[in-house]
Design a protein that fits this description.
By secondary structure, this protein is of the alpha+beta class. The chain has a single domain, classed as Nuclear Transport Factor 2, Chain: A (Roll). Helices cover 33% and strands 48% of the residues. The chain has helices spanning 3-23, 26-31, 48-58, 134-142, and strands at 33-41, 44-47, 65-76, 81-93, 96-112, 115-127. β1 (33-41) and β2 form a beta hairpin. α3 crosses α4.
Length: 143
């Protein structure tokens, strides 16, 4: 894959992931991960489709939201693509759009039969984490 093609493929996949999250399309979101994916977020580390799905169901959008992904740098490795992106998480309040969180994604993508999927997503430098409280996510996963 050429660098230009890899860069465009990663950016398109990042946008698709953000749109699925914001629209509450859990199955579409989960399908963009490999079956053994690792998702490291402020509330914990979750491995595989079932755990990722459980977390998404716990934090499903209750009001309009947007993930804005920017400043993406793509690095092609031997068997995967690595991307680092900044993000803003916006929620719609009665007063208008409000920034609820800011952070950085560290993503590893793999090609599975011609489809680019996330193998690992690590969220770093996120502040604040009010939209995804650790206790709420972990309490819901343990029940």
């Amino acid at each position: 894959m050429s660098h230009i093609t890899a860069d465009a493929s990663v950016r398109n996949r990042l946008a698709s992931i953000a749109h699925a999250a914001d629209d509450g399309r859990t199955e579409d979101y989960v399908a963009m991960f490999t079956a053994d994916a690792v998702w490291e977020i402020p509330s914990g580390t979750y491995v595989g489709h079932d755990k990722i799905r459980q977390v998404l169901e716990t934090i499903a959008p209750a009001r309009p939201q947007r993930h804005v992904v920017a400043n993406t740098i793509v690095d092609a490795q031997d068997d995967h693509l690595h991307a680092v992106s900044d993000f803003l998480f916006l929620v719609h309040e009665p007063s208008g759009w409000v920034v609820a969180a800011v952070g950085r994604y560290h993503d590893e993508f793999r090609d599975e039969d011609g489809t680019l999927r996330l193998r690992r997503r690590t969220v770093r430098d996120q502040t604040p984490v009010a939209y995804m409280p650790t206790k709420v996510v972990n309490d819901n996963l343990s029940s």
